[in-house]
Amino acid sequence: MTSTKLRASVTESLAAVLRDGGTLAVGGFGLCGNPFGLIEAVRDLGVRGLTVVSNNMGVDGKGLGLLIENGQVVKVVASYVGENREFARRYLDGRLEVEFAPQGTLAERLRAGGAGIPAFYTRTGVGTVVAEGKPHAEFDGRTYVLERAIVADVALVRAHLADAEGNLAYRRTARNFNPLVATAGRTTFAEVDRVSGGYLDPESVGTPGIFVDHVVLAPARPPEIEQLTVRRRPEVQHVDA
Questions:
Q1: Assigned domain for 230 exists
Q2: Cα separations in angstroms, 207 against 48, 112, 169, 203
Q3: By CB atoms within 10 Å of each CB, which of 91, 115, 181, 213 scores lowest?
Q4: The predicted structure's pLDDT at residue 155
Q5: Share of the chain residues as helix, strand and coil, in percent rounded to the nearest 5
Q6: Which residues pair with 215 in a beta bridge?
Q7: For 44-69, what is each residue's pLDDT tens digit?
Q8: What is the mean pLDDT of residues 185-192?
Q9: pLDDT at position 76, please?
Q10: 119: domain CATH number?
Q11: Considering the domain boundaries, does residue 127 fall inside one?
Q12: Can you give the residue range of the structural domain that contains 28?
């Protein structure tokens, strides 16, 4: 099996396609399914003026929060940002532009971008600030708002398994925004836990390799947990014999 998309490092490839002022789409939900190594590569690259499209912006010191803290992001397109204090500070100081999108709308904007659909109508957001300034139309007696698709210069995704042709399989909850983001990038980088010795079973493929340009192994690290919630151990009742 000839290796065509596996890379020992993506630093040079990333530097060739992500420039100052570029648009970066990133998979993940909270810290689940984040391409941590690729995000750190963007940080180390030092590109500035980025527009980042992601469901959320990580947390302070982790995930996309690193790019916020490093001053590399000027605009965020997201559906939720409530776990990042530095994000809030920069937004309130006027140093960061924010475009909020309902979660389903954001997902569809990414999917549409990958499918070559420039825009679509949806009822979500009609009558709210989300729809202000956007074209409206009536279909079957109901009002819809026009939403533009998203195509990013670079997409970063995290998958569990890949083969040399870039076919990706995801593991459980990490299959969140990653398949959508993978299709929406002009150049897509995938960070994976494992590389298969042969081609993946087509039935297990979550993202076909045609959408993926570069595959790199994820750096080994403990799992990141955004909110650790555990059940309290019940009191043990001692019974005298």
A1: no
A2: 29, 15, 7, 11
A3: 115
A4: 97
A5: 25, 30, 45
A6: 6, 190
A7: 999 999 999 999 888 888 889 999 99
A8: 96
A9: 94
A10: 3.40.1080.10
A11: yes
A12: 11-217
